[in-house]
Amino acid sequence: MSQFREEMKVIPGVAWITAILLYVCFVAFSWTFMIPHDPNLSGGPRWALAIFALVIPLFLAVFVLLIGYVNGDARRRGMRYVMWTLLSIFIPNAIGVILYFILRDPLQRGCPSCGTMVSQGFAFCSKCGTALAHACPECRSAVQPGWSHCTKCGARLGAGN
């Protein structure tokens, strides 16, 4: 399955339903009330009215789906999803959504022993204690292979790291 389809599955069903309902309601509202009652709109060509009534509501639907994506993605990354959802809604001009994409945490990974979701920087699983990465022998913080010294405590690392 493509990466795009996998990412679309992150969007909660409520966001999909809300986006579709808002789109249908806005299209119906445009054809029923806005176009017939506005002299500037009703005198235009039919193709322009169709574009107005069918394409403009897509922006609202896409924005609702973006907010749903922020909610689902923040949840799967172990972030404060309610806070990020509210920021995405209330910061105008989609700046909240843009901020989320700039500031989001990396994806969590599953512990190979117990399956608990663990953040990328952890050296040990918080549930079962399984080693997830190389660790400093002094302070037990995560170190990268090839480092000669720990960045947290300065201890000399062995040749195995």
Compact summary:
It contains 6 helices and 2 strands; from the N terminus they run ααααααββ. With 161 residues, it is mostly helical. It has a two-stranded antiparallel ribbon with strand order 1-2.
Features:
53% helix; elongated; 2 domains; 161 residues; 2 strands; mainly alpha
Give a description of the structure.
The protein is mainly alpha-helical and 161 residues long. It folds into two domains: 3-106, no CATH class; 108-161, no CATH class. It is 53% helix and 2% strand. It is built from six helices and two strands. The chain has helices at residues 3-8, 13-37, 39-42, 46-76, 81-90, 95-103; strands spanning 109-110, 117-118. A hairpin with a 6-residue loop joins strand 1 and strand 2 (117-118).
In angstroms, what separates the terminal alpha carbons? Answer: 36 Å
Percentage of helical residues? 40-55%
The strand count comes to 2
User: Which regions contain 5 or more consecutive residues with pLDDT less than 50?
Assistant: none
Structural class: mainly alpha
- The SSE string, one letter per element, is HHHHHHEE
How would a textbook summarize the main sheet? 2 strands, antiparallel
Number of domains: 2
- Rough outline: elongated
- Widest sheet: strand order? 1-2
**Number of alpha- plus pi-helical segments:** 6
Radius of gyration: 25 Å
Mean pLDDT: 88
What percentage of amino acids are in beta strands? under 5%
Write the layout of secondary structure elements.
Blueprint: H1 3-8, H2 13-37, H3 39-42, H4 46-76, H5 81-90, H6 95-103, E1 109-110, E2 117-118
Antiparallel strand pairs: 1-2
Helix pairs in contact: 2-4, 4-5, 5-6
